[in-house]
């Protein structure tokens, strides 16, 4: 059987790339002959010029729950900031898998760690220790505190996704509230335009009718305020509130930053009423702003009691984390919360590698520098097309380009020309490229974008003329 071979001896002599090949051969030998033949057929076909992605997509669509609208292309491989589809068309990726692939695609360091750890140990259940869950937790806490962010960060709960990290945060805050002596301290506050996930708790904190309405009723006890409305805080966050969740920079909502004044006032009110302040840094954290965490620039008076992270933490390997202060951690006891996969040695070893690199001073400095290149060029475009671009927002490499019209056609035209770009909020183009993107790639992508925007601006002028007539 497959694992009778000594993996240590066999792998020790192989470079990482060959180890991946070895693993594939090994795993295949453990499957049935029919499965092997089918998999080989697909893999061979996907790289063959005869492979018709549109045909495969059409045939297989009926097997997939239709939760996403996808264009008729299929991505097969990536390298750094580029992706290739099955027709071998090359795309520059300004999306990074929605702020996930910060180290780029097929990064050698990440693939090497995956291959090595996969040969050793992928999973043991959470009833036992493994070498990486604790080590990742230690790294996150020590690095966060040394960076000047979340001064009271103390312990970490590792899970598998952003939604799950927020679920844990919501449960932890409820537990803090329930042990406060006030039996009604179960209420939650979140903010319009935010996005915290799709599971019932995180969805209840996401006041977007499109996402909530089909699945109501929501979890009871959630109420919503407006980001940056300082005057409303006192009434919104009352004695019965156990938790407040906020993104320091709203991602899906259109790249809107919470102001320092707002977050300082929010934290003060949370302290006054004994509520837990949660920062959702799932999209804006982990170096994306050019700081380790988006809230790193805030005074400690605005630091959170809980912070959540996921997305970039595994560079594509699913992993999330809920980081808490001692005040929160002491309320959570054995058996309160858990997950089968969360903290498995494969995901946590990868996350350890990724976190080490994303938190390096050099990486963060580079993100700030590249963010400035984007901002300068985009501001020039805004000056050129004032009727189409109304504002450039964001920090580092989380950037919003506010348009005056619906951006669907712009995204499609960019894709046709080999640039992947996202939308967010209302008529916002969202740029969240790999943090390792080069200056040349930034300019290449912005050239494509400018060509498409010039076209859209011209169309807009023609439409206005037509209306004027
Ligand atoms: C700020 C924020 N929170 C939570 C989530 C949910 O994360 P996941 O999709 O990994 O569950 C997202 C996902 O886009 C997000 O951007």
TrEMBL record:
It is found in: Mitochondrion. The keyword Cytoplasm does not apply. GO terms for cellular component: mitochondrial matrix. It comes from the Eukaryota. Its EC number is 2.6.1.11. Its cofactor is pyridoxal 5'-phosphate. Keywords: Amino-acid biosynthesis, Aminotransferase, Pyridoxal phosphate, Transferase. One of its GO terms (biological process) is L-arginine biosynthetic process. PROSITE patterns: AA_TRANSFER_CLASS_3. InterPro entries: AcOrn/SuccOrn_fam, Aminotrans_3, Aminotrans_3_PPA_site, Class-III_PLP-dep_AT, PyrdxlP-dep_Trfase, PyrdxlP-dep_Trfase_major, PyrdxlP-dep_Trfase_small. GO terms for molecular function: identical protein binding; N2-acetyl-L-ornithine:2-oxoglutarate 5-aminotransferase activity; pyridoxal phosphate binding. Pathway: Amino-acid biosynthesis; L-arginine biosynthesis; N(2)-acetyl-L-ornithine from L-glutamate: step 4/4. It is an enzyme of class 2 (transferase). The keyword Transmembrane does not apply. PANTHER family: ACETYLORNITHINE AMINOTRANSFERASE, MITOCHONDRIAL, AMINOTRANSFERASE CLASS III. HAMAP family: ArgD_aminotrans_3. Belongs to the class-III pyridoxal-phosphate-dependent aminotransferase family. This is acetylornithine transaminase.
């Amino acid at each position: 059987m497959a694992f009778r071979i000594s993996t240590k001896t066999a792998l020790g002599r192989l470079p990482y790339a060959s180890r991946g090949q070895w693993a594939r051969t090994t795993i295949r030998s453990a499957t049935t002959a029919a499965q092997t033949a089918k998999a080989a057929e697909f893999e061979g076909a996907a790289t063959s010029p005869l492979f018709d992605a549109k045909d495969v997509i059409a045939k297989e669509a009926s097997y997939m729950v239709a939760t996403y609208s996808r264009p008729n292309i299929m991505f097969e491989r990536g390298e750094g900031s580029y992706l290739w589809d099955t027709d071998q068309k090359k795309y520059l990726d300004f999306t990074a898998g929605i702020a996930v692939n910060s180290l780029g695609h097929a990064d050698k360091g990440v693939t090497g760690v995956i291959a090595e750890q996969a040969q050793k140990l992928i999973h043991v259940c959470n009833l036992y220790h493994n070498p990486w869950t604790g080590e990742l937790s230690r790294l996150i806490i020590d690095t966060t505190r040394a960076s000047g962010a979340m001064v009271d960060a103390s312990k970490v709960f590792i899970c598998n996704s952003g939604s799950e990290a927020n679920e844990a945060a919501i449960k932890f805050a409820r537990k803090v509230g329930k042990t406060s002596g006030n039996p009604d301290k179960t209420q939650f506050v979140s903010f319009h335009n935010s996005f915290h996930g799709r599971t019932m708790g995180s969805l209840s904190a996401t006041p977007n009718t499109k996402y909530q309405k089909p699945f109501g009723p929501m979890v009871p006890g959630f109420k919503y305020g407006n980001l940056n409305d300082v005057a409303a805080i006192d009434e919104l966050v009352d004695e019965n509130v156990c938790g407040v969740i906020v993104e320091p920079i709203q991602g899906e909502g259109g790249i809107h930053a919470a102001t320092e004044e707002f977050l300082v006032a929010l934290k003060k009110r949370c302290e006054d009423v004994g509520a837990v302040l949660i920062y959702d840094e799932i999209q804006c954290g982990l170096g994306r702003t050019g700081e380790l965490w988006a809230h790193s620039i805030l005074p400690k008076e605005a630091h959170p009691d809980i912070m959540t992270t996921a997305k970039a933490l595994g560079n594509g390997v699913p992993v999330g984390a809920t980081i808490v202060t001692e005040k929160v951690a002491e309320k959570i006891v054995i058996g309160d919360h858990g997950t089968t996969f969360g903290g498995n040695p494969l995901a946590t070893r990868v996350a350890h590698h990724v976190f080490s690199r994303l938190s390096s001073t050099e990486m963060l400095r580079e993100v700030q520098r590249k963010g400035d290149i984007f901002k300068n060029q985009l501001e020039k475009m805004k000056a050129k097309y004032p009727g189409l671009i109304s504002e450039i927002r964001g920090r580092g490499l989380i950037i919003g380009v506010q348009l005056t019209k619906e951006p669907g056609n712009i995204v499609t035209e960019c894709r046709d020309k080999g640039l992947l770009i996202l939308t967010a909020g209302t008529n916002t183009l969202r740029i969240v490229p790999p943090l390792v993107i080069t200056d040349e790639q930034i300019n290449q992508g912005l050239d494509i974008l400018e060509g498409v925007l010039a076209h859209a601006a011209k169309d807009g002028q023609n439409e206005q003329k037509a209306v004027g007539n």
